[in-house]
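A common beginner's mistake is to predict each chain separately and then try to dock the pieces by hand. The better habit, illustrated here, is to supply every component at once so that their relative placement is modeled jointly.
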Amino acid sequence: MQLNRRGLLGLSASAAAFAIGTPRGRAADPVKVGLILPMTGPFQSTGRQVDAAARLYVQQNPAATQGRPVEIITRDDAGVPDTTRRLAQEFVVNEKVSVLAGFGLTPLALAAAPIATRAKVPLIVTSAATASITQASPFVVRASSTIAQTASIAGDWAARNKMGKVVTLVSDYGPGIDGEAWFNKRYTAGGGTIAASLRVPLQNPDFAPFLQKARDESPDGLFVFVPSGMGAAVMRQFTERGMGQSGIKLFGTGDLTDDDILNGMGDPALGIITSHFYSAAHDSAVNHAFVDAFGKANGGLRPNFMAVGGYDAMGMIYRALEKTGGNTDGEAMVDAIRGLSFESPRGPIAVDPATRELTQNVYMRKVEKRDGQLWNIEFETFPAVKDPANTKA
Amino acid sequence: MSDAAATAARAAAQLDRLSRWHPAEYVFWALAAASLLVFPSRYLLISDIALTGLFALSLDLVLGYAGILTLGHGAFFGLGAYVAGIAATHGLRDPLLGMALACAAAALLGAATSLLVLRGSDLTRLMVTLGVAAVLLEVANRLPALTGGADGLQGMDVGPVLGLLPFDLAGRTAAVYSLATLFAVFLIVRRIVHSPFGWSLRAVRANPLRAASIGIAVDARLSVAYTIGAAIAGIAGALLAQTTQFVSLDGLAFHRSADVLLVLVIGGVGWLYGGLIGAVLFKLMQDQLATITPQYWEFWIGLVLVALVLIGRERLAAWPRALWRRVAGRQPA
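With all components supplied together, the output reads:
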């Protein structure tokens, strides 16, 4: 009897839920873009930024070539790779999307890449930054950057400016290890010395013991790579220990001073130098328009480099559709995306036809206060930087 | 003398009645099979639900029947996923073979760690199981050559099931394979639960001291139950690896253990169908809410959980019954 009641309850509920779950009627014409992003969990700011920017692009450009509307469907993978994979599969099979985009973290992108290959659907990475992703499938294109791109420039710049003895501190996962490797390679090639390379666990990191270790080496500089969002914790503990006063220079890739949270870091962030491909303070007409429109559409939110990745992913899709004359065949789209070049809010970008990575400017920036707000102000430009990891010399 | 014989006969008849298949059970499995035909566009979700249900079933054996509190059941799930995944990257393409390896590996780990788990009380068990899962996660993270580290395991190549059914993009094979595995394992668990061994587990859960004094080897029984639970969790992990052809550290993450506990609590602990129905409800709720509001679905799930606890599952179950009585009452007798 017990079983009966419970069983019936469960079954009727599941039947009802399943009935809601069947797909609704399909509109024939729009080009569908399936965005898979972490909208909940620790990386939700990535999802929010990319989603908002992609939608802004569609709002500004309601129709792609020949008046075909573009429709964005967003799903949350909560940063769980097998969910990403299932959503990608369902997008391809059920929704018949023409493009998959998003992917907040490297494992998420790698989980979905085989689907892109099997279904012959372009997969545009808006955020994840490990170099190996574009090798996982010939249908993967990157709209953000690789860590190698920004970290190697940080190495070049530090070597040129005679930083001296440097300790590196990175999060212990794919991009962090990439960042450490490329910074060390270029910095030592330029004549610098690395005193120690420290890796901090990605999950629930406590930076204090690592910062202490770094301090024990009494270096001249501390190079940091942590995923977007964790920079604030590093900065706070760095300041609390008075490491800045003892003459250690904190610098890193732009993930450290992410525009989304930079204002919340307060004055300790002032003067920090980072290398990155996008700053909301980038001085160009395209960027000013982008930052204004993004803020208006999202209650004053400042776009960060994740947002510009989402915006440019849509830019690539629109331009590719124009080139193919509205043909959404996966191979044709990827061919059209290869070699695209246009002006993005971050500056001029071009898709390298060989590697499907972006060739873009990498800027050295310094955190400064303007009108009571903190900004990454660019002071030096390394023009047209290719991704060093995937480019065969 | 005849009195005792009569009592024994009555007890045997009672046990027999309890272990018999209830009509609702046939309906449940018929509906599960029918879901494959009715919702061809949701094969992947069906597969996901089936393997989550299997995972919850394994936890139910450990928690619901044997009464071992654990927060690290995900360790066996993740180990199973990695073993099946690594087997598939090293040329062992047959999914059933991979599953057998995963099951064996998880059982070994379960047997070994059951010795730790047996020591101490509930709180200690929570800590120990949590610790084992954390250690395993870090080991997988530190062996990128074997596990792919934080990037996840690449290049899995899983062959067709039984050499006949290749895994397709729509997920049909995955759904059939997961459901069939779930059913087969369910039959075994059902047999176990209704065996004298299963009843002795319930006796131990109710009162370990009294169980020991009537001659039940408490530690041995718990240890065996824990090992079986681990082995089944390993099978569920293998299903995940083979149907998604990808394994990442996430398979070992803490939220796996927490989620499966949630699933079991939604469906009902200490009841064979609890995990299965919990998996159906949890996954459908997650899927539907996340479609409607990708950003805030967790809020609604939380709300439903709180409501479920406040109202009480028994009362919820009583509502359709009362409704049925009213409908039936109106009809001429």
